[in-house]
Amino acid sequence: MMDLKEVFFDPNHPTLLGSCARAATAEEARFRVQYPNSRTRSSRIFALDAGAAEAMYAITEDPWNGAHFLTLVDRGPVDPATTDARDLPLAHPDGTSADLTEETDGADVVVLLATSGDNEGAAEVIAREAFHRHIMCAGLALGSGKSDASVDRVVNSMRRFATVLVVARDNDYIPAMLTALRA
Amino acid sequence: MLRKEYNDLLTQTDPGTSMGDMFRQYWVPALLASELAENDCDPVRVKLLGERLIAFRDTEGRYGLMDEFCAHRGVSLWFGRNEEGGLRCPYHGWKYDHTGQCIEVPSESAESGFCQKVKLRSYPLIKVGDVLWTHMGSEENRPPEPAWEFANLPPEQTYTSKRWQECNWLQAMEGGIDSSHVSFLHSGSLKTDPLFKGAKGNQYNQNDKKPVFEVVESDGGLYIGARRMAEDDHYYWRITPWVMPSFTMVPPRGDHPVHGHFWIPIDDENCWAWSFDYHPTRALTDKERQAMIDGYGVHNQYVPGTFRPRQNKDNDYLMDREAQRRGETYSGIWGIAMQDASLQESMGPIVDRTKENLVSTDNGIIMARHRLRKACEALRDKGIQPPGLVPEHQQVRSAARVLPPDQPFKDAMKDDLTVRPGVKQTSV
What we know:
The complex is a heterodimer of chains A (183) and B (428).
Chain A: H1 4-7, H2 26-29, E1 43-47, H3 50-57, E2 68-72, E3 90-91, E4 97-98, H4 100-104, E5 109-114, H5 120-132, E6 136-142, H6 148-159, E7 164-168, H7 173-180
Parallel strand pairs in A: 1-2, 1-5, 5-6, 6-7
Antiparallel strand pairs in A: 2-3, 3-4
Chain B: H1 4-11, H2 18-23, E1 27-32, E2 44-48, E3 51-57, E4 63-67, E5 81-83, E6 86-88, E7 95-96, E8 102-104, E9 122-123, E10 125-128, E11 131-135, E12 158-165, H3 169-176, H4 182-185, H5 187-192, H6 200-207, E13 212-217, E14 221-229, E15 235-243, E16 247-250, E17 258-267, E18 270-278, H7 286-293, H8 321-326, H9 336-346, H10 363-382, H11 391-394, E19 399-403, H12 409-412
Antiparallel strand pairs in B: 1-11, 2-3, 3-4, 4-9, 5-6, 6-7, 7-8, 10-11, 12-18, 13-14, 14-15, 15-16, 15-19, 16-17, 17-18
């Protein structure tokens, strides 16, 4: 058994309230420096299918900190081997087209939303672009009302690309997560 | 970042609060059984969920947990005499049984029946394993008794301790589901702690400091999977289960005992960190048990005669910068439990989550808060019982395993993450 008292403890070591761990009180907390300790993040949220877009559109009007919400335009399966980042068909919520390279330029985090496993190719194109730019890529599989097999398909479509993969049972998790990430 | 109103919702557990009401749905650990070791032993002061209570064990071995203060003049019954089937206030002799019912008021005629009109609020106190559990909610919603594996094994297979942690329960609990800190904060202890060292999995932890996470909802809470690179493009998975509201388990290492925690509010600025170790299929060895008593693994050393850690905020947790420089500890604090507690207490009694800057690898914490909030609101607004109450939700295990890259842990490790009596833990 390590005898901490003999090894470490110096009873003569001065411990003033403001300069030791005892300062972790509610009273001392009011002396914490008050300032914004981070700058606004650039978050890019991509809905990979119609279900994900519907869930995303429900929150795009909320007051976000500059988050960009983008949907994949359905033009059939995307072949990642032949699809350049600039060619990925993306749209802003107002329907105007968006360019993946411009959207990811300077972004801090990429979030992929999916309710089906249909767009693995598009996920790969986005994740590849994020990887090149050293941007953290998170995947959120929305499983509301879906069978386990169906959710597995969604998860599998994003597993290779996401540094963090979350399987959420309800769509309320989208705003909860984005708020937590200061999106 | 968490909005202030949600931070308040989740961190406040006094009577009448939403989170307090939610905690009161569960059986929660109240005392170690050893604190009330024999009939008519000394009563013990207990503070839980912002309520000051007194626990005692009467002449017939019945456990009582009730309002600490005598109904007569408000004297603390800790000064009481535990004798002849009840706890007697030493001031004027009022006596209470284990249900809080006053059974004697010496100044009044016994025939008057006056004492029948006096009853202290009390809660059931039951022994399951080496823990005394209480349910502080309404009797009609009392759930089945605790079914946690650690509490339902023979005593030679388990060891439980508790320590006072000087901060809100939520920031302590969040440490329990934050897998990514292990490769940093506990890196020294992985090499030296007798309850951790020597496992093959430790090498994966040390070699890959950027785990990939998968967070999956379970019926009772979450499974938080941390994936690190192993050999041949395989993945080393460590799965942390969290069961609402505050049960967590640490993924096992080698054949070491499995460990985990409960985080139970004392009040809004203090909590009990309950720590348990068990082996599902064998007795703990003398060496293992002694290591736990000595404060290794998830346990700690104490200020003698108390449940306060020997390393505490009054002595800067016995910070040892030289050990830090030598690489023996990452933070300079000895012991895994106090490495966590020192940092969590340094956040302040209730951390201001409006100022935090979470990143996507914090999704386990984000999801846990989300589920707690939803369950809290569902109970408050619709009377819906929260997850984690039924035995099926409590039959979980942590696990560690190396898997091929194409196998999702939730499927490949389904059996590993479920209690299987007589089957040892899945570990690397």
